[in-house]
Amino acid sequence: MEIEDGVVCNQSEEEILGLRRGPWTVEEDVTLMNYIAKHGEGRWNSLARSAGLRRTGKSCRLRWLNYLRPDVRRGNITLEEQLLILELHSRWGNRWSKIAQHLPGRTDNEIKNYWRTRVQKHAKQLKCDVNSKQFKDTMRHLWIPRLVERIQAATTTTAIPNNMNMSSDQVLVPPPENSSTAASSDSFGTQISPISSMTDYYNDPVNNHCNQDYDLVNQIHYVPDSLTSPYGYFHGGLDFQAMEQTPQWFGSGNTSDNLWNVEDIWFLQQQLNM
DNA sequence: AAGATCCGCAACCGCTCCGAC
DNA sequence: GGTCGGAGCGGTTGCGGATCT
């Protein structure tokens, strides 16, 4: 409720202007996608008006960037992505858009949500602040190495069929025009996995790189999507059901939750109490 | 079976930055 | 230099589905 010049107003400015809020309808999505396909993106306020959408430019921009854009990835955050997020967050803090730039197809909103719902949950379990040195040390010395272990185990034991097809009910809004961006599955067996070098680095018992500032950001530029994550399979067309049966991608449940077990939490609490 | 609670995520909000005028 | 509008960012909210009691 807003008060203007002593007069109580129950309507927001947007409502007065006849602007809609809340969840987007299919019709609005289609309108926005068609308009952008014809005229391109940008100038969001005028775009919203020209397209006949009763939405703010901000709302259109957000809907496009976080949901409708053809290259938006949907689905669980992979182990590799979790690793990157942890590493990049330890470096840059809550610079979500900057972090998102290093995770192709992921939006800042998605990463932010992941951090808040998963990572902060673990901090809460450990009864420490997510920004505390204790929690950061915990991530660096236990969580990240554990992730690396799991990635390493996954890459050495699994082959994923490359004739996967995406079933329609697993994508909320099928990207209409990006089939041309599909990664070739031919590259799967022919490229060297940077993940293995990454895991070697972390697991190197001689040099103990866990304690050093490992330049993951620079390395990640050389990561072929089709090899290190399901990303390539998304773009090549995939079968989520098949992937769900492949534990290293989606795990047997929540991938991040699985990183912790009772012993870990007990151990950490002992450390934190020291 | 039904209500309560939890959780994930889409969407919104407020603020800052930046370029055009 | 000041103002304005567009764009982008990080924080927050609220809805809906899942899970628990």
TrEMBL record:
Keyword terms, alphabetized: DNA-binding, Nucleus, Repeat, Transcription, Transcription regulation
GO MF assignments: DNA-binding transcription factor activity; sequence-specific DNA binding
Domain HTH myb-type: residue ranges: 19-72, 73-123
Lineage top rank: taxon: Eukaryota
InterPro entries on file: EOBI/EOBII-like_plant, Homeodomain-like_sf, Myb_dom, SANT/Myb
Any matching Pfam family: Myb_DNA-binding
Predominant place of localization: nucleus
Keyword Transcription regulation annotated: yes
Annotated Gene Ontology cellular component terms: nucleus
Keyword Endoplasmic reticulum in record: no
Subcellular location: Nucleus
Domain (Myb-like) ranges: 19-68, 69-119
Protein name as annotated: Transcription factor like
Native organism: Actinidia chinensis var. chinensis (Chinese soft-hair kiwi)
